[in-house]
Specification:
About 30% of the residues are buried. Helices cover about 65% and strands about 0% of the residues. With about 250 residues, it is mainly alpha-helical. The protein has one domain.
C-alpha cells in the first residue's frame, strides 16, 4: 500500500541529506525516549530508566534539534500553511489515541510544529520580500537578527515561563500550566516556537547554499530515510510501542 505523499517522501537529489539524517537521528532518539516511558508507565520499570540526570538534558537537546531542523526545512516547503495544518491535525490524532489509553498528550511536538509552520506561513504571506527574493545584505542582517532575538526570547521564556505553575487554566498550549496539569508529551509554544523561528531564519542561508560544500554532499542513507518521513514515523511508532508494551505486560502476568 502506497502512503500519501505528505506522509512518505522518497529520496530525491533536491533534498539535503544531512538535514534529513539529523532529523532522523533526533526522532529515533525520541522513539527510544517514548519506549522507556512506556516501560516505566505501563510495565512498572524503575523511574530512573526514563528520567535521570543524563537522559533529561539529552532529551531536551535532541527535541530542540528536531524543532530547529523542522524550522530549517520549512524554507523548502511549497506551502507552510498546508504543511502546518496537516501536522497540527496529526497531533490531535495522537492526542485522541493517547487519551483512549488513559495517557493523554494534549499539546505535543506535532501540535507545536504544526502551529509554528502555520504562523511562519502567515508571515511569509505578510512579508514576502523579507523572506524571499534575491540574496542581499539587508536580508542577511534580518535573518541574523531573527536568530539572535529568537535565542534571547527562548532563554527568557525557558527561565521565566516554562514548567512554572499559574492559577489559571486554558493556556497550557502557550506554556502556562496550572497545578496538577498533566500531558505525556508537552511542547508549548513558549518557549519552543522561538527554536522553530531560529531554524526558519537559518534555513534561508541553507537554501542559498551558503554552507560548506560537504554539508550538501554528505550521505547518511539510513538516518536520512527516517528523517524524510518523520511524520509517518511519529504517528506510527506510538501504537506500535503501545502494542509491544501490552504484549510484554501480558507475558509478564
Amino acid at each position: 500500500m502506497k502512503l500519501p505523499s505528505f506522509l512518505w517522501h522518497p529520496a530525491s537529489p533536491k533534498r539535503i541529506e544531512i538535514i534529513d539524517a539529523l532529523r532522523g537521528l533526533s526522532i529515533l532518539l525520541m522513539v527510544i525516549h517514548h519506549a522507556l516511558y512506556d516501560a516505566v508507565y505501563f510495565l512498572g520499570a524503575p523511574s530512573w530508566l526514563f528520567s535521570n540526570p543524563v537522559f533529561d538534558p539529552l532529551q531536551k537537546f535532541f527535541a530542540g534539534l528536531f524543532i530547529f531542523l523542522s524550522g530549517v526545512s520549512c524554507r523548502f516547503s511549497h506551502s507552510n500553511l498546508k504543511r502546518g495544518i496537516i501536522t497540527f491535525l496529526a497531533g490531535w490524532v495522537v492526542s485522541l489515541a493517547t487519551y483512549l489509553v488513559d495517557n493523554p498528550a494534549w499539546f505535543g511536538i506535532l501540535h507545536l510544529l504544526g502551529l509554528s509552520a502555520v504562523l511562519v506561513g502567515a508571515a511569509e504571506q505578510k512579508f514576502p520580500k523579507l523572506l524571499h527574493g534575491k540574496r542581499s545584505q539587508k536580508r542577511d542582517v534580518a535573518r541574523a537578527l531573527v536568530i539572535l532575538i529568537s535565542t534571547i526570547l527562548f532563554v527568557f521564556m525557558w527561565s521565566r515561563v516554562y514548567d512554572a505553575s499559574y492559577n489559571f487554566k486554558g493556556f497550557a498550549w502557550l506554556g502556562f500550566v496550572y497545578p496538577g496539569y498533566y500531558s505525556s508529551d508537552w511542547f508549548p509554544l513558549l518557549p519552543w516556537f522561538f527554536v522553530f523561528t531560529a531554524g526558519a531564519a537559518a534555513g534561508g542561508f541553507v537554501v542559498e547554499r551558503r554552507l560548506p560544500k560537504k554539508f550538501y554532499t554528505a550521505k547518511i542513507p539510513f538516518f536520512a530515510a527516517v528523517g524524510r518521513n518523520t511524520l509517518a514515523v511519529y504517528i506510527l511508532h506510538q501504537p506500535v510501542l503501545y502494542g509491544i508494551t501490552m504484549l510484554v505486560k501480558l507475558f509478564l502476568q
